[in-house]
Specification:
alpha/beta; eight-stranded mixed sheet; six-stranded parallel sheet; globular
Length: 381
């Protein structure tokens, strides 16, 4: 079996310590160990020197002195791309920050470029006008010049076709790395565990509609709410923390990086709340579905596509209050099993890695065909 050399570009790195793309890279590496020679680009800023490994699950790790997010992500991705061109047959680029150089790359190099364009990053409220313009431009370039575009949600796939007239490969994320945990009634650390509670974990950003959810629960003191997130990151989260953390039924927790502890808190909630209004298939939603949790999601096409229109949905504070007040335990349990069935059918890492592997196999086949064609032409000359 001929192994192709593959570079994974655009993540903080592995082992996964940040978000969805990092978890994706982790599982691609894990599933490709015997099928490809993989290199993953990592940000030194997220891995202290003593934690940096040369290899992880047989994948080579390449560290760069830039942050993988924000404005530095542009130079981080561009340098990663140029370095990868020296050895890799296939570049898997996660996100569009560095894709402005693809026209140059395709002019002078023959490597196969696979780009996961993420979830329409240019629509996010956290970016200013100029950043949104740049990201939309980068998305357009990525779609035009990449050999393969990957979209993680049916709604994103339709956007690519409608906006650019281009086909894309629909590949979501896996959720089966999460494990349902029995409730540990550590009421000293987590006093809310003594009663039913509603749960959410996310980045504290306006497009995740944290303010809508908090307003609803502030008017329902009989219902408990727990949200895990980075409250101190910006003024939006700081203001929400100051306003709502004083309410006895609302518990706003700092980020939890212990996977087992996070899984325990998620596994035992009454309802999982998903407020994301931008992006495609969100990893935290897929994970909640795999944990067999009833889902109440913000009503946008991305979330409806991910849940096959079978979750419960809200758009306003009143929607959420009404939805919560109308549900019985029987309805919630039925809905939880429906979410689990969808996740088992669509969102396992074996399925996701196999779909990406098919793209690599196509790359290897095309590379062999090019070499054979070149040899035939040379023999005739």
């Amino acid at each position: 079996m001929i192994k192709t050399n593959v570079a994974i570009i655009g993540t903080v790195g592995v082992p996964a310590c940040y978000g969805g793309f990092e978890t994706l890279a982790h599982h691609l590496v894990e599933n490709w160990q015997e099928k490809a020679n993989v290199s993953v680009y990592c940000s030194k800023a997220h891995y202290p020197k003593e934690q940096r490994q040369t290899h992880y699950k047989q994948a080579r790790l390449v560290y760069l002195p830039f942050k993988a997010n924000g404005i530095q992500s542009i130079i981080y991705d561009i340098i990663s791309i140029f370095h990868a061109l020296t050895y890799a047959q296939t570049l898997v680029i996660l996100g569009v920050s560095g894709c402005l150089i693809l026209p140059f790359i395709k002019l002078f190099f023959n490597q196969r470029i696979i780009v996961n364009i993420d979830g329409l990053e240019w629509k996010r409220n956290k970016w200013n006008k100029w950043a949104k313009m740049f990201l939309k431009w980068s998305e357009k370039i990525a779609v035009k010049y990449a050999d393969v575009i990957v979209t993680d949600n049916k709604a994103i796939q339709e956007h690519v076709m409608n906006a650019y007239g281009s086909e894309s490969e629909l590949i979501a994320y896996g959720g089966d790395h999460v494990i349902s945990k029995n409730l540990e009634k550590d009421t000293e650390t987590y006093p809310f565990l003594s009663r039913p509670y509603h749960f959410k974990v996310c980045r504290i950003e306006p497009e995740n509609n944290v303010h809508v959810i908090l307003k609803a629960f502030a008017e329902m003191p009989e219902k408990q709410l727990v949200i895990v997130g980075n409250w101190e990151r910006g003024s939006y989260g700081q203001n929400l923390l100051a306003t709502y953390n004083r309410l006895s039924n609302i518990h706003l927790l700092a980020p939890i990086y212990n996977q087992e502890k996070l899984d325990m808190l998620r596994s035992n909630c009454l309802v999982y709340l998903h407020g994301h209004s931008a992006g495609g298939t969100n990893p935290s939603l897929v994970e909640a579905m795999y944990l067999a949790l009833p889902i109440i999601a913000f009503d946008v096409n991305y979330n409806r596509a991910s849940t096959e229109n079978k979750a419960l949905y809200f758009h306003t504070k009143e929607d959420l209050k009404n939805t919560l007040n109308q549900q019985t335990f029987t309805i919630l349990e039925q809905q939880a099993q429906t979410m689990k069935a969808i996740a088992q059918r669509r969102y396992t890492w074996e399925i996701i890695a196999h779909k990406y592997q098919n793209l690599l196999t196509e790359s290897t086949t095309q590379s062999i065909q090019k070499k054979e064609k070149t040899m035939i032409l040379n023999s005739k000359s």
